[in-house]
Amino acid sequence: MPANKKRVFVAGHRGMVGSAIVRQLSERNDVVLITCCRSELDLTNQQAVNDFFASEQIDEVYLAAAKVGGIHANNTYPAEFIFENLVMECNIINAAHQNNVQHLLFLGSSCIYPKLAAQPMTESALLTGTLEATNEPYAVAKIAGIKLCESYNRQYGRDYRSVMPTNLYGMNDNFHPDNSHVIPALMRRFHEAKLRDDKEVVVWGTGAPMREFLYVDDMAAASVHVMELDTEAYKSNTQVMLSHINVGTGVDCTIREMAETMAKVVGFTGDVVFDSTKPDGTPRKLMDVSRLAELGWRYQVDLEQGLTHTYQWFLANQESFRA
User: Fold this and answer.
1) Which of 7-11, 27-31, 167-171, 240-244 has the lowest mean pLDDT?
2) Residue span of the structural domain in which 112 resides
3) Among the listed residues 318, 123, 122, 308, the one whose alpha carbon sits nearest the alpha carbon of residue 215
4) What is the pLDDT of residues 252-286, one digit of tens each?
5) Does the residue 197 lie in any domain?
6) Residue 120 neighbours by CB under 8 Å, 6+ apart
7) Which residues are annotated as a binding site for substrate?
8) How far, in whole angstroms, is CA 79 from its chain's centroid?
9) Which of 103, 120, 181, 281 has its CA 20 to 30 A from that of 321?
10) Would residue 192 count as lying in a domain?
11) Which GO terms describe its biological process (predicted)?
């Protein structure tokens, strides 16, 4: 193996974001990809993770492994969301440090910011207000991951970076009818309604909340871009390395507008009805992505394009969703 090839571990390589990062890195000739299935490595098992790192001679880590879900899943399984995410983060980040891995990228979430944060949300909004109640346990776990990276950087001089993506969607998303995020849940609902020739599809909430959506392949490209930034470029003007950076489009739309675009892409011609008795969640979530733009990255895929790509993938893989 050429000496200049990096050994890169992608944790969570079968998930939506992890698989997109694998697609990005697999096109490179300077990378040896290291992946491990859950049946081979339980990331919640500290000893197993330590042994894995000790044996693999890893140079870089993309920490994309996480337990994720939408409002319903976060409301139903709060203990699992905080526990499993905390344990995986602690195990991987500490094992990386113990085995002298200098470069790590932790993937967080825009839900780390306060429910009523000023819009668009800047990196400095972290820990300035109360979190959205429906996903607070998950958000607390992600904040802890950011602070783990920050702490290892401060104490040990590591270069552990964090990216905070906006709402993601795309290939390999979770299309479970109850436990998925809004785009995959609605895509499946509209598709099945079209097959049944239903007259309407019901969407949770009023349709008024504003959301920003990023296609997952754009997120993967941004992750690689941030990982490979020169260290000095990634520092703030106070010369303290910022532990996280926002990733998004900087453009948002209402849930109603997204649902109408979804209906168009799927080909559902019935009515879209909003159930205002269901929770809306945060009124608006828009990321300030100016810092990432200054560092040379901007999204490429708009919402309708991304939904079209995702629906094509959904159609090709729908048998696995039924199973």
Assistant:
1) 240-244
2) 6-172+213-251+285-302
3) 308
4) 999 999 999 999 999 999 999 999 999 887 788 89
5) no
6) 250, 286, 287, 288, 289
7) 189, 204, 211, 280
8) 20
9) 281
10) no
11) 'de novo' GDP-L-fucose biosynthetic process
**Is residue 28 a part of any domain in this protein?**
yes
Asked whether residue 323 carries a pLDDT value surpassing 70, the answer given is: no
Q: What are the residue ranges of helices labelled H in the chain?
A: 16-26, 46-56, 71-76, 78-98, 136-156, 182-196, 216-227, 255-266, 290-294, 303-322
Q: Which residues are annotated as a binding site for NADP(+)?
A: 12-18, 107-110, 142, 165-168, 181
Q: DSSP letter at 99?
A: T
DSSP 214: E
How many domains does the chain fold into? Answer: 1
Q: Which domain CATH number covers 116?
A: 3.40.50.720
Sign of CA dihedral 192, 196, 197, 200: negative
Q: Return mean pLDDT, the chain.
A: 92
Report yes or no on 308 lying in a domain: no
Binding-site members are 12-18, 107-110, 142, 165-168, 181, 189, 204, 211, 280
Q: Which of 296, 295, 291, 255 is nearest to 273 (CA)?
A: 255
Q: How far apart are CA 175 and CA 177, in angstroms?
A: 6
